[in-house]
Amino acid sequence: MLYDIGHYLEGQVCPVCAVVAENEARFVRWFDLEYASSPPMWAMMAGGGLCRKHSEQLEGLGTRLSAALRYVTDSRRSALAGLGQQVGETRKSWWMKGPDWFQRYFWRKSLKRQIAALTGTVGCPGCDSNRHAVRYGVIVMKEYLLREDGRELYRRYPTLCWTHLVDVLQQADTPETVNFLVDCHKVRMEQWAGEFEEYFRKLDYRYAQEPKGSEQQVWRIVLHFFARG
């Protein structure tokens, strides 16, 4: 990846975001080739499920997901049936013969504990994979900025998004790297501030006839810069 960073920077793409995007595409391919027919992956999905984002990405696999989703459905159905059974047994417990307030307190406490178990303890495998990709991308980006030619190119194209800029700052090994990134992005944000001023100036009827420029698109650039995930 170290040799791809320059390509990402010149293309005005956050290098770490690019690594995550490539990882997500790879996750979908591997899910199709291996994971869709893997019982351990089925158990992971049943134990925590997929987040909405990765569920939508896997939707393109269509009926090839059927075996995995049948397993998840059966597992969750059994869990719900078990909850119903536990609720029925709870109602027969000794404390249900106590005062009303006593019953309600222990009923809520027991029910919450039983329902919490339905959410599972395993995270989305796609999200877990992305977290590893982010860590890798941040480490490589940090190493790239130790090179003189890397810093020179980044000064021209400071394209880390806000989230991954903060990640790299947190992992930086030297104060020089922190100062370099801060200086680069201060300059960039000052440019945006100037373009916003120009945009709002041209909203004034006295200047509305002036030619429109890059200030008309600054909102889009800033929106993507600060977007998370």
In short:
The protein has 229 residues and is an all-alpha fold. It has helices at 5-10, 15-33, 39-48, 52-58, 66-91, 100-116, 125-144, 148-156, 162-171, 175-201, 218-226.
Q: What does the largest sheet look like?
A: none
Order of helices and strands: HHHHHHHHHHH
Range of helix content: 55-70%
Which spans of ≥5 residues are poorly predicted at pLDDT below 50? none
Shape type: elongated
Report the average pLDDT across residues.
Answer: 87
Q: Which range does the strand content fall in?
A: under 5%
Helical segment tally?
11
Structural class: mainly alpha
Compute the gyration radius: what is it?
A: 26 Å
In whole angstroms, the N-to-C terminal distance is: 20 Å
Overall strand count:
0
Describe the SSE topology.
Elements: H1 5-10, H2 15-33, H3 39-48, H4 52-58, H5 66-91, H6 100-116, H7 125-144, H8 148-156, H9 162-171, H10 175-201, H11 218-226
Based on the model shown, name its key terms.
11 helices, 229 residues, mainly alpha, single chain
Describe this structure in words.
- The relative contact order is 0.12.
- This protein is an all-alpha fold.
- It is elongated, with a radius of gyration of 26 Å.
- It has 11 helices and no strands.
